[in-house]
Each structure stands twice: as C-alpha cells, then as structure tokens.
Amino acid sequence: MKVLIVDDEKHVREAIRYFVPWEKYDVAEIFEATNGQEAMEIILEQQPAVVFTDMRMPLMDGAELLEWIHRYSPYTKTIVISGYQDFSYVKPAIVYGGIDYLLKPLNSKQLISAAERAFQKWEEEKRERERAFRQNIQLNVLRPLYWDKKLSELVGGTVSFQELEEALVEELGLPRNAKHCRMAVLSLQSSGGLLLKKFRGDIQLTSFVLVNVCNEMVSLRKQGFAFRYWQEGADVAVLFWNRAEEAEDRLLEINESLKQAYGISLDIGLSRILPFPGGISDAFTQARQSLAERNLLLKGKRIHEYLEGSSEAGRAGGAKADDLMEKLGISLLSCDSDKIVRSFDDWADFIAGTGVLTISGLREWEDRLRNVLTKWRQECDGSEEVSKAEAPFPSAIEAGGDFSFERWKDGLKSYIMEMFGESKLSRSSDSRIVREIRDYLDRNYQQEITLQHIADRFFLSRENVSRKFKQVTGENLSDYLTNLRIDKAKELLQNSDMRLSRISELIGYEDEKYFSRVFKKATGLTPREYRKREEET
Asked: Which CDD domains does the UniProt record give (predicted)?
C-alpha cells in the first residue's frame, strides 16, 4: 500500500509521518508533495491508496486536487488536514468523498483514527472491486472476445460482411444504410510503449482499457466500434461506419482522455474514407501503413492520415548517406573524439535535413549505425567475434510520448562516446573518473545525492556511472555511499552526545527512523544499541 502526504509545510508532513503507525497497515512507501500539481504527478505514477492533503497551497490548492482525484483516481481515499474550519474549505471534502477533515494543530489520536478508517475503507473497496471484476469477467468475457475475433476476421478478409451484418446491426448499432467507412489503428508500442508501462507491461489489460476508452467516444455515439485486433501488426483498431468524416475529431478526444488520465497521447494511423462494406480491408491496410510510416519529425502530430506513397519516404539510403556513415566509421578508428563528434553531427544533421523520418527509416538508420559500431569494436578490441546485441540505444521518447529528434541525436552521441570511452584505448581514464566520484562523495556525503546527480555532474549516463564505479571499486556506488555514512555515524555515536535526529541530519538522512533502519541493516544494531555497547566497552 502507498500513501501520499501533500502540504507546503514540512513540519506538518513530518508530523503525519511520525504519528501514524504505518507498519500496522502494511504501508510500503510514503511520498510527499508541496502542492496539488506535484501531487497529481505522483498520483498518476504511484497510484496511492490514501492521500493526506492540506487545503491552502501554492499553484494548486486542496479543493482543486480533491476534485481531480475524484475524477481521475476515484479509488484513492482522502483525508483533509487544514488550519481552517470555514465551510468553503470543508465543502470540497464532503462533495468529493473525503474520509475526514482534521484541523491543525494535529491531534495524534484523531489522525490515527482517520487513517485507520481510510485504510479499512480502501481495503474493503479493493476486495469488492476484485469480486465485482471477477464476476464481470465471468459474465461478459465471451462477448468482447467474440467481437474481437469476428471483426479481426472481417478486416482481414477471412469472413464476409454478409455473415456478420445482422449481428452488427442488432448488437453494435450498425446503421443499415451505411455507405462509407474509415479505420484507425492504435499500437501499444507507439509513444515508446509508455501506456503499456503504466499497466506494468500487461498487454491484455492495457488493450482492454484502451478499447473501452475508444468505445466511450465512438460506440456510445453509434459511429463505429473499437476492438482488439487478433493478428500481428496492430493492437487496437477502430472501425467507423457512421459520420466517417468526424473520425479525426473522435480520435483527438480519445487522445485527450488518455492524456488527462495517464499523461500520455498515442500515435494513431487513420485511413481515407472508403466505400462500406467493400473498403473495410483496404481501410485497415491504409490505417496500419499510415501509423507505421508516420513522419517522426512532425513533432506534436499524433493523428496520421494515409498518404499515397508514404511507404517510400524516410528510407535510409543514397550516396550521401553512405558517405557520411563511412566517415563516421573512419573517425571512430582515428580515436579522435573531436572527429567522432563532428562526423556524427554531420550524419545526424543530414537525417534532419531530409525532412522525413519514419519508423522503418529510423530502424534502418539505427541498424546501419550498429553495424558500424560493431565493426569498430571488433577492430578496436581485437575480438574475433563481437556480438551485435549491444545495449539498446537510448530512448528518444519524451514524457508525453512524443519522439524527440534532439533527444535521439544527443542520446546516440552519448552512447557512442561512452563506447569510445570503454574501448581499450581509453580505459585508463576510468580509474581517474571513479577517484573523482569517490572524492566528491567523501566531501558531500551529508548532502542529498542521487545517481542522476552524479551522472549530471560528471557528464555520464546513470548506467555508465554505476558500471564504471563497480568495475573499478568492486562495490556498488549506493553501497559505498551508505557505508561511508554509517562510518561517519559510528564516529559521532562514539565521540559525542548528539541526539540521533542531529546525527541523522549530519550524515545525509532527514528521517531519523529511516536512518535507524539503514544503520541496523548495516551493523545489526540500532544506533542506540550501538552507542550503549560502545559506552560499556
């Protein structure tokens, strides 16, 4: 179970952390936010069971946050903790189903009682949701599966429209006078697979949710029907058979709904308007092709309409491309970092200058680049066999799902320079970099330090920092930092009468309880037990 505490006053957040017996309710993680906007991001990412929130906060106040939670995270229970008892503050908590409204300063018994009610309510509703979900599956699983299969066969041409016509009219609302159709295709792998990741890689659940979102916009308006495509090449398809000219508007609404709920928009392929029912298969082919061959350089465009000849655009080829790729390979063999950067920039700028980059074109460029890098590693390291299955190239997908050419270019450049740095010709620099990292940790262990912070400071990727540190020292960076802090804590416990909270702050831990858990895990003793043992010896 996860919990979120939202308050712009640090001492209030700390008080809530201190008073509530989290272990009793199996709370695994506690997150904090200082305003409603931060809270929204955490809720979308972590889906906490309970949210403790203040009412008056900067950027977005508690009333707005409660309304947003009620709409987009309805299972989350809320407890309001406020310094005001005006009805204008109390009303949102009542309207949006808050468990309790507590006044500051906090009363520990009231806080614990409210938390217990919230946890119990969440558990009860969770069990009821699971029961209803199982029952709903048992009652309704056959109907959507049937239509997924039949509509997949229809667009694939393995079943005739005449065989399905009556059922389509009676069950899905197909008008008997339909004359035109249009198809849309949505892939769970588009936008970097971010929607799929939101559901922990569960393809069945993700496609089920996506179909439901689509049908809220399409089927309920009797414009068509969305279904999970059973064959290879698409995840979700939408067949429009009524008011096909409005298809793009419906798809924009689908993306807006996904963006509001999950912070993600999907790329969608859309066919031309074709005769119904004879054009169904062609419409599906067009929609699939327009998605696969979309121009990645058109940033912000998520609905991709079919264009004749689009499959020929964005291919990696031509004498100029061959020449630039050859120059990049030569610059790598020269072991001159400046030449490598210049030749890489020339190659990447040539791609941007074409004005068109499709998915297939992108993969072809990356395959050719990987071949060059594989050949270079083979010659550089003197290995008889060098696997082409190197680490994957960095992601070029931004937070909202857009492809970023700049991110792709910068990521590949960093990838190449890291490979260059790992070659036999420059490995001697690793020990120096790791020594600098260790020196930095030794001087700044009392500060908040993350792996990303170290990576940014030393101009390396997170993965490269971890790998280099482990290779040179034989120890994980996080373990080194923890052991360093524990050693400093031991010195302070042995040689001072400082309170544990002060020692915790001095070695980089704001939470005394967390410091105690880390210390016991490392030494087998709590800080108090350690201090007492040292005093007795």
From this structure: REC_YesN-like (cd17536)
Residues 6+ apart with CB under 8 A from 317: none
Instruction: Quote the CA–CA distance of 226 and 212 in Å, as a whole number.
Output: 8
Summarize pLDDT for 234-259 with one digit per residue, the tens: 689 999 999 999 999 999 999 999 99
Give the length of the chain. 537
Give the tokens for residue 531: 């201090």
- Domain range summary for the chain, segments of one domain joined by +: 2-128, 160-305, 314-425, 429-536
φ/ψ (deg, to 5) at 305: -80, 150
User: Which superfamily, per CATH, for 429-536?
Assistant: Homeodomain-like (1.10.10.60)
pLDDT number for residue 383: 44
State the pLDDT at residue 429: 53
**DSSP, res 390:** -
- pLDDT of the residue at 435: 83
Q: How far apart are CA 399 and CA 383, in angstroms?
A: 39
Place of tokens 């790329």: 267
Phi–psi pair at 138, nearest 5 degrees = -60, -35
- Please report the sign of the dihedral spanned by the C-alpha atoms of residue 503, residue 506, residue 512, residue 514: negative
Q: For the ranges 120-124, 325-329, 397-401, which has the lowest average pLDDT?
A: 397-401
Burial class (CB within 10 angstroms; exposed 0-12, middle 13-18, buried 19+) of 477:
buried
Mean pLDDT, the chain, integer: 85
Asked whether 80 and 55 are in contact (CB, 8 A), the reply is yes
How many whole angstroms separate alpha carbon 219 and alpha carbon 172? Answer: 8
The CATH-assigned architecture of domain 160-305 is 2-Layer Sandwich (3.30)
**Amino acid sitting at position 366:** E
What 8-state DSSP symbol labels residue 224? E
pTM, to two decimals: 0.49
Q: With 0-12 CB in 10 A as exposed, 13-18 as middle and 19+ as buried, what is 214? A: buried
Report residue 19 as tokens.
């008073």
Q: Is the pLDDT reported for residue 33 higher than 70?
A: yes
As a CATH number, domain 2-128 is 3.40.50.2300
Tell which residue, 277, 309, 314, 311, has the closest CA to residue 291: 311
